[in-house]
Specification:
The complex is a heterotrimer of chains A (about 290), B (about 290) and C (about 280). Chain A is an alpha/beta fold and about 290 residues long. Chain A contains nine helices and 14 strands. Chain A folds into two domains: about 220 residues, P-loop containing nucleotide triphosphate hydrolases (Rossmann fold, 3-Layer(aba) Sandwich), CATH 3.40.50.300; about 50 residues. Chain A has a six-stranded mixed β-sheet with strand order 6-7-8-3-9-10, sandwiched between helices. Chain B has about 290 residues and is α/β, with parallel strands linked by helices. The chains are: A alpha/beta (about 290), B alpha/beta (about 290), C mainly alpha (about 280).
């Protein structure tokens, strides 16, 4: 059974502050989203899971074996997309993918066809023979996803894979990942709550280096039952409310503000009523609760 | 306040048409511009911001034409491009001051006032003396918005302003934008439907230079009403569904898959109709246009 | 008639064959209605599940990674050679052309001005070392380091392979230059070889070591300073001559080479991209 376990992962750069503190989770095949505020440690966690950064303490076990015992063997089973990456100048997409395929140890007889196959699945094959310098942001991102998929890894760790993609392109990728996720562990970090929401099997919420939630989306919203309130007030009052209570959403149309307030108890605002919690409400609540280190 | 766009066309190098007869009108509030990549969204915004000239058509604001009143338009428009660069060693305040000069605000005192005001709006006042190199990503975005806000523009044009921000920063910025939209016209291009919880006054869908849709958020969502179904399927049924319908959601649950599909009629026996979401309306719109 | 000809061709028969014609004539007497739309649809519907089954079955065939594993075993090309191969593909044509042009121009000038071409080589080789240093950091410069780190080789291995490739190229280049200066394999030739190999290795070792401890800029500055010192102070001979004037040139060269290799080895074995690069954003 495919499992990836994180046991008490701690990462510190300075003696007194931790980027990651005691992150523990057991991942099984499925499609998971890693959420959290910028700076929460999502990228650091993904790097540690990819074996390219060593944790200060704690272990990662792949199928029961510690990856620190044989990083090389572990890395044969993972594909990783960094948050930012470049490419050697003058390389075409194909050259780049061939180079990476060889670095991943894929034999020369196999990688040209594989590169073509995956590039087609991800929708970049028509651009492969153009220099990467001329590719758009979205296409480069997708090139990164292709590179991660080349060796057919069991674990896919993708840092913000959907950046720069339009809704149709996102749908294509999400469908593809969902299909792969039946027998692989796929973890994507994302800043946009609505992305992946219809495709995700589970959510990992990282706040200030702590894993504050690990479960299904329904569980996330269940936690918030009875804690989300809706108020409709004049715009000026909206500002006041936002400064006193925790607001997960507020928009103003024609001087009336619709406000979603997250609170354990009912706020004393005229006309406020309880409402069905959503993912954003849960996110806002959990982030605020774990805000200070 | 009314911005009127009539038959806007943009052709590059004599043959590449970026915009085909785009017409629309907008007033105060937030207008969302969505569409596939390379649809012409950035070109459209750049023309409105006065950075590019249209090949044909005109843009007028309360009767005043863009082409004939360039200086006026420059004064009333604030623009935040997709990629906004700045020197790492400059402080936030210095950067805004520099841009204010570029915008033609020569009076030093007035500049100081405007810069302080803009930084205050985006909550960057306490870091105004810090070097931009030390700003977090969210702060840099807010600085970009501050620069667009200098002098309280009547029209604010933002190209993907929320990309890269986390949900908290996104909400905060959304609040700021919402507030400004009370008195100005704010045009935002975006890829993410979650940001559209702003309460968009109007949505514009652009694809390959054509304006496919202009109308309300609700009407766009309604395009998918009755066409979205939830199905519980096993692996083989999923393959079948994928061959016949567009799958817009799939979640693994205890060995089977809960799928969301777009279908004109009930896709199979166990399907349940569910409420449509905005992105599904968008997909239906694009699909219809393809078939046309 | 054409249809008949085509069929006949496929059958590798002759149309003149009486039996064949006979069969055709009989077949022509039969008429069939083309299938109705409903019938076609029904056929398609019946076939679809079979296609799906095929697709599913197809998917359940061997996963690519298993194919890779079995091919790898039967291939037996050692991993390290594959790694070196990848780094060779990275050598940009620009770099190669630049260095060749640089060296050739230098030799030509030396010839023109009747000056000692051998000393030119001694001066040029550390410069090549400096270029090699910048080449070593290409992955970092172009932000490819993270992706490379996620592949099967450790950053140290990739860095070593890269340096070996570029260094080999430098050595070949300089050897060719040496051969043109001194075509006979006598003691002068070998002396010359040592004379440029020593500063090259020493400079590279020092520069790499410094760059790892103190950053690329420091590495370049250190290397540049040593180079300038070598040219101006020691008149083209190895820098160590300055420190150890009593020893012979050959000895100094050998010490330089050993020192250089030692520094390189030490630097590469502690090449860790992570602490340098992956700082918290």
């Amino acid at each position: 059974m495919l499992t990836l376990e994180m046991e008490n992962i701690v990462k510190k750069y300075k003696a007194d502050s931790s980027v990651l503190s005691h992150v523990s989770a057991t991942m099984r095949p499925g499609f998971f989203v890693l959420l959290g505020p910028n700076g929460a440690g999502k990228t650091t966690l993904l790097r540690i899971m990819a074996g390219i950064l060593r944790p200060s303490s704690g272990t990662i076990l792949f199928n029961g074996q510690e990856i620190s015992q044989n990083y090389k063997q572990y890395k044969q089973n993972i594909g990783y997309l960094p948050q930012e990456f470049g490419f050697y100048p003058d390389m075409t997409g194909r050259n780049f993918l061939h180079y990476i395929a060889r670095l991943k140890g894929i034999p020369a007889s196999l990688y040209p066809a594989r590169v073509e196959e995956i590039a087609q699945c991800i929708g970049v094959s028509t651009f492969l023979d153009r220099k990467i310098g001329g590719w758009s942001v979205g296409l480069r991102r997708r090139l990164g996803i292709v590179q991660a998929l080349l060796a057919d890894p069991d674990v896919l760790l993708l840092d913000e894979p959907l950046i720069g993609l339009d809704p149709e392109e996102k749908l294509l990728l999400e469908n593809y990942f969902s299909q792969l996720a039946t027998e692989r562990i796929i973890i994507c970090s994302s800043n946009i709550l609505a992305d992946f929401i219809t495709f995700t099997d589970g959510v990992l919420l990282l706040v200030n280096g702590k894993l504050c939630f690990n479960g299904r989306i329904e569980e996330l919203t269940d936690v918030m039952d009875g804690k989300v309130w809706l108020a409709e007030v004049p715009a000026k009052l909206g500002q006041v409310i936002a400064s006193k209570w925790l607001v997960s959403e507020m928009y103003t149309v024609e001087n009336i503000s619709q406000i979603r307030i997250v609170s354990d108890s009912m706020p004393d605002i005229a006309g406020v009523r309880p409402t069905q919690p959503g993912v954003k409400d849960a996110y806002t609540y959990i982030v605020r609760r774990n805000d200070s280190p | 306040m009314q911005l009127q766009i009539t038959n806007l066309m943009k052709i590059y190098n004599g043959s590449i048409t970026a915009l085909h007869h785009v017409s629309c009108s907008m007033g105060t509030g937030i207008v969302g511009l969505i569409g596939p990549n390379a649809a012409g969204k950035t070109t459209f915004l750049k023309i409105l911001a006065g950075l590019e000239e249209p090949t044909a058509g005109n843009v007028s604001f309360d009767g005043l034409e863009l082409m004939q009143n360039k200086q006026f338009f420059r004064n009333i428009i604030g623009y935040l491009p997709q990629e906004f660069g700045f020197h790492k060693t400059m402080t936030g305040e210095a950067m805004l001051d520099y841009i204010a000069v570029l915008k033609g605000i020569h009076d030093k005192k007035r500049r100081q006032h405007l810069v302080a005001e803009a930084m205050d709006w985006v909550n960057l006042s306490d870091t105004r003396k810090t070097a931009i190199g030390e700003y977090s990503f969210g702060m840099k975005r807010r600085l970009g918005i501050a620069q667009a806000l200098l002098g309280k523009p009547r029209i604010l044009i933002l190209d993907e302003p929320l990309e890269g921000l986390d949900p908290g920063e996104s909400t905060r910025l959304g609040g700021i934008i919402s507030e400004i939209a009370g008195q100005s016209l704010v045009i935002i291009s975006t890829h993410s439907f979650s940001n559209l919880e702003f309460g968009y006054q109007r949505l514009l869908v652009l694809r390959q230079g054509y304006m496919l849709y202009q109308g309300s958020q609700a009407a766009l969502t309604a395009l998918a009403e009755g066409l979205v179904w939830q199905v519980e399927a096993d692996f083989q049924q999923m393959e079948q569904l994928k061959m016949n319908f567009k799958v817009v959601g799939a979640q693994h649950q205890d060995g089977h898959i809960v799928a969301r599909v777009l279908a004109e009629h009930k896709p199979c026996g166990e399907a349940m109709p569910v409420k449509a979401r905005l992105e599904e309306g968008y997909l239906v719109l694009l699909n219809d246009e393809v078939q046309r | 008639m054409d249809k008949r000809q085509q069929i006949v061709r496929d059958l590798e028969e002759e149309l003149v064959n009486v039996d064949v014609s006979d069969v055709f004539d009989r077949l022509d007497k039969y008429h069939m209605e083309p299938p109705s739309v409903e019938a076609t649809n029904q056929l398609v519907q019946t076939l679809k599940p079979m296609f799906i089954q095929q697709k599913v079955a197809g998917r359940q065939q061997q996963r690519f990674r298993d194919i890779v594993a079995s091919t790898r075993q039967s291939n037996a090309v050692p991993a390290i050679l594959q790694l070196i191969g990848t780094q060779t593909t990275l050598m940009s044509k620009g770099f190669v052309l630049l260095t060749i042009a640089f060296l050739m121009a230098g030799l030509l000038l030396a010839n023109l001005f009747q000056s000692d071409s051998s000393s030119l080589l001694i001066i040029a080789s550390p410069f090549l070392g400096l270029l090699t240093l910048s080449y070593e950091y290409r992955a970092q410069m172009y932000m490819v380091e993270e992706i490379e780190a996620s592949c099967c080789y450790s950053p140290a291995q990739v860095a070593t392979a890269r340096i070996l490739v570029v260094l080999s190229y430098n050595v070949i280049l300089c050897t060719v230059a040496t051969v043109t200066i001194e075509p006979t394999y006598n003691i002068v030739f070998w002396n010359l070889m040592l004379n440029w190999l020593a500063p090259l290795l020493l400079m590279l070792g020092v520069a790499l070591f410094t760059s790892l401890k103190f950053g690329i800029t420091s590495g370049c500055i250190m290397a540049g300073a040593l180079w300038v010192a070598q040219i101006t102070l020691v008149n083209g001979e190895s820098f160590l001559h300055f420190l150890l004037p009593s020893l012979s040139t050959v000895f100094i060269d050998l010490i330089s080479i050993l020192l250089g290799i030692g520094l390189l080895y030490f630097s590469l074995s502690s090449w860790k991209a992570e602490e340098r690069q992956f700082q918290v954003r």
